[in-house]
Amino acid sequence: MPRTTEGSPEPDWTDPDCPVARTLDLVGDRWSLLVVRDAMDGARSFTEFQRRTGIARNILTDRLRKLTAHGLLAQRTAPSGRRQEYVLTNAGRALFPVILTLRQWGERHAFAPGEPHSTLVDRHGTPVPELAPTGTDGTLLDADTTHVRKTR
């Protein structure tokens, strides 16, 4: 897996200058974001992650190792003192808007009208409002109103 050393990109990065590409190199496979999603929803043990996702043990082992190595999860001793558990780090928790945006896109585009699906709610039980990025002047941003400024 690609890593950075002393701020310099490793040659394995898909596109070393693109934050989207680097992020996908870290969490863009089929299972990593689902593990992060479940950690956000309270999963802590290997068994819980496996039960919630249905992921094969060897793949889950690999993803947990990768997410831990890249600082999205940390291992600690469970309160029982008998097992290790996984907890989100600040970097892992910072993926919340990414998970939320994927969820909201899925609600709009991955289900037929009226098809039932889970709903993310706040601590009061109210559905979380749709995220909408805005510029410094408050106007909505989208692909037509933004562009990438290249570093080179």
TrEMBL record:
Q: What is this protein called?
A: Transcriptional regulator
Return the annotated region ranges for Disordered.
Answer: 116-152
Pfam families recorded for this chain? Answer: HxlR
Task: Please give the Gene3D superfamilies that the UniProt record associates with this protein.
Answer: Winged helix-like DNA-binding domain superfamily/Winged helix DNA-binding domain
Reading the lineage from the top rank, the first entry is Bacteria
Give the UniProt keywords, A-Z: DNA-binding, Transcription, Transcription regulation
**Boundaries of every HTH hxlR-type domain copy:** 18-114
Originating organism: Streptomyces lavendofoliae
State the Gene Ontology terms under molecular function: DNA binding
Give the compositionally biased regions (Low complexity): 134-143
